[in-house]
Amino acid sequence: MGDRADEGGEGVTTSKSRNKAGAGLKIERVWTTEGVHPYDEVAWERRDVVMTNWRDGSINFEQRGVEFPESWSVNAANIVTTKYFRGAVGTPEREWSLRQLIDRVVDTYRTAGEEYGYFAGPADAEVFAHELTWMLLHQVFSFNSPVWFNVGTPSPQQVSACFILAVDDSMDSILDWYKEEGRIFQGGSGAGVNLSRIRSSKELLSSGGTASGPVSFMRGADASAGTIKSGGATRRAAKMVILDVDHPDIEEFVATKAREEDKIRALRDAGFDMDLGGADIVSVQYQNANNSVRVSDEFMTAVENGGGFDLRGRLDGQTIETIDAKKLFHTISQAAWECADPGLQYDDTINDWHTCPETGRITASNPCSEYLHLDNSSCNLASLNLMKFLRADGGFEVEKFVKSVEFVITAMDISICFADFPTEKIGETTRAYRQLGIGYANLGALLMASGLPYDSEQGREVSAAITSLMTGTAYRRSAELAGIVGAYDGYARNAEPHKRVMRKHAAANDAIKPTGTVATALQREATKQWTLGNKLGDKFGWRNSQASVLAPTGTIGLMMDCDTTGVEPDLALVKFKKLVGGGSMQIVNQTVPRALRSLGYPEEQVEAIVEHIADHGHVVDAPGLKPEHYPVFDCAMGERSIAPMGHVRMMAAVQPFISGAISKTVNMPEQATVEDVEKIYFEGWKLGLKALAIYRDNCKVGQPLSVAKPNKATADTQAPAAEVEKVVEKVVEYRPVRKRLPKKRPSQTVSFSVGGAEGYLTASSYPDDGLGEVFLKMSKQGSTLAGVMDAFSVAISIGLQYGVPLETYVSKFTNMRFEPAGMTDDPDVRMAASVMDYIFRRLALDFLPYDRRAELGIFTAKERAAQLRAEAEAEASGADLTAMAASAPVEAPEPKTGPVAQPAQELADAAAVKPAPAVGSSTELLEAVIGKAADAPLCFTCGTKMRPAGSCYVCEGCGSTSGCS
């Protein structure tokens, strides 16, 4: 990895590219004060970081006495300590202060910048280091996670989070793909690959046999990713698999994940543990990758006009089959409707904005679809926190934003000089083309705080102008760097197409027609940056073939205390906040009162509206709030959720100003149809997007077939709130009271057999108010097992009498695995993972209402049969599976007695208040407020329910992500 050469053979340049004639960057102070170190400007405090699994209280991580600024939230400090501090816990080598972490990274960047000739002199290097330190310390921006993992450590200096691989039609290449992908996963990053060069299963091998086809080779790669995922340390494996729409195996590829979801349903109903991370989910294939179809303008035009479309052989390009384009498009949309895969990538649009077409086409992307460039390449990311540039008067710090982009893009380019890469091919391409991915987070929060609806023309104008200014400034600085340390090696052969793309960006900027003062100021400055940057580029070329992407900003978004990630709107108006010293509470997002003040509401009305949101989770009927201001507070989920096309229009507004693409999933309601998916995918093409994925609520068949509907009365009583700096208003206190069963109570006894072990379950009820007592017998009196079962029965019974809901026990003890396990003699529960699994499934069937059991995925044999019939009818008619299941000709049985007993009223004048359901994240809090389960997966590390971040998910508990940054 010493010297590097461009693929086109234009010559070799040494890796230590020096500046020209002693010139270098003159760095001016923006955020810092001369003579004052950034660390001396903040108040520091020591904290104890103890991370527990909120479900069972077990300690996942512990480090005491870590040092952070007082302004940093508990969550941000916890995530940085657990994810980014290096060294073994409990040893002197372990980092314990944010100062050490920032110095480790910034000192490496400064040293490399001086070594490779970026600065005019040592004083400029020092100012650069101080400015970077200040910005990181004050959460103005963050590098992507691999920088924090690796830079300044003895580990390889890997700085990239996103990788694109290549695979050819040979067994050696396919095996190299497996190996290279595994190496990237091992380093905590993700990779994408296009399999379209592999010949189809409809073509012949040189030996005369029939080829296996790309889908068969996907199985091996999927199994490899799943194995590495299960042992991941820093982050889980993430991958993208892409197939061109004209590949003869395209229909098989489209159907892969939808078919596997059917398998999940069948195995789950047979009693297997098919939860995310469950013991039996490994039997399902193709679950470790996002799938995307590369569609061409030719194909989309055939869809639009109703024509035929040719599928072409990989060996000679000859037509193997001609299909109905509309039918294939419907099949793609049907599969996405069923299981969220595949997404679409619009090939001609992607390559029309490609700066390096003379080197090769763009065929693939990283797992989250924001990085799109050459095969065998990588991209390092960094994201700016937009809320740090919003002034108190509602204006935007345009000049500071420009200077901040300069600092960040310079640092990112410096990192390529010293970075290590997982393979030699990736290292060569990345050094030759120097792909960067500057982006931002907190766009949704910025718009709301400014009093602008996310789905509005003004909101899109501001977003487009910010994005144009960011990318225009990044390319202008890239042109300046080219004048100092040289253009990227591949620039000479790609000079004309690179200039053409720069002109396209500038023309898109000119097409913005701002109406507000903020958007006007941003667009005016963006015009200056594009004009100057293109002038410099004509003279010097550009240092980087790519400058910007919009990444999910999952972990680093939490590190920067961002309310929203990437280009996303707010998830909801209330969120889950961890407190110093332990504990947590529900708060109304800090953005809300700021938005209300921006809209001109007096303080007393702000407080009243915030209190209403704390109680209800939405702004509908909030006292004094004008209905025309409701859209300002629309969110991704909840009472007033943004329409799917609102998300698409925002993506279309910012896409012309992004070098790569946008990591974002368009959420669709459960009742959306396949035709709605078709419309979204078609409009994405028309609006000029590069990539698009959808997710329909509850589309995963592994999720419950139906969920509890919102219950306003219950939600109102279950949504606690708290007083925190006038943002949170009310705390609900609860003291349990035991309600004993009467001397004479109804009961039933069930005999059972699990894996050959026999026993008896006796359940006693309140006369009119649910289960209150459980006794289990499985062995001779006096034996250890009998004693343990007796003690367990008493503990469960007392808990029920103190008001612990039965569904809480059911959720905890179902799927618990230990011997004896296996077949049962119960027709409703044919398989059990353990005796506990069986007992609580049986109790749920006997005492919980249908909608509660549906949330938990527990059904009688009769109900399952009805669902399967309904699904078969739905497949035949194309109807909504969930709606058919809900209308199946089976009456949900009533529980044998009423709901689970709740505590009695202790005092005559005290209102009986139900305890709020336990929550461990903002997603679970939102579920409690709206009364509807979200499809977000559970975190592999700590068990907390994750929240969406672009097209990935992020855990608020520990910072783990399912994808990039």
Write the SSE topology:
Elements: E1 4-5, E2 12-13, E3 44-52, E4 59-69, H1 74-83, H2 98-115, H3 122-137, E5 141-143, H4 145-150, E6 162-164, H5 171-186, E7 190-194, H6 214-230, E8 238-244, H7 250-269, E9 289-295, H8 297-305, E10 308-312, E11 319-324, H9 325-339, E12 343-346, H10 347-352, E13 364-365, E14 372-373, E15 377-385, H11 398-418, H12 424-433, E16 435-441, H13 443-449, H14 457-485, H15 491-510, H16 517-540, E17 546-548, H17 555-559, E18 574-578, E19 584-588, H18 591-598, H19 603-616, H20 644-654, E20 665-668, H21 674-686, E21 691-696, H22 712-718, E22 747-754, E23 757-765, E24 771-777, H23 784-801, H24 806-813, E25 822-826, E26 829-832, H25 835-847, H26 850-856, H27 861-877, H28 881-886, H29 922-930, E27 947-949, E28 952-954
Parallel strand pairs: 6-7, 7-8, 8-9, 9-12, 15-16, 16-17, 20-21
Antiparallel strand pairs: 1-2, 3-4, 5-15, 6-15, 10-11, 12-21, 13-14, 18-19, 22-23, 23-24, 25-26, 27-28
Pfam families: Ribonuc_red_2_N, Ribonuc_red_lgC, TSCPD
Domain TSCPD: 742-845
Family: Belongs to the ribonucleoside diphosphate reductase class-2 family.
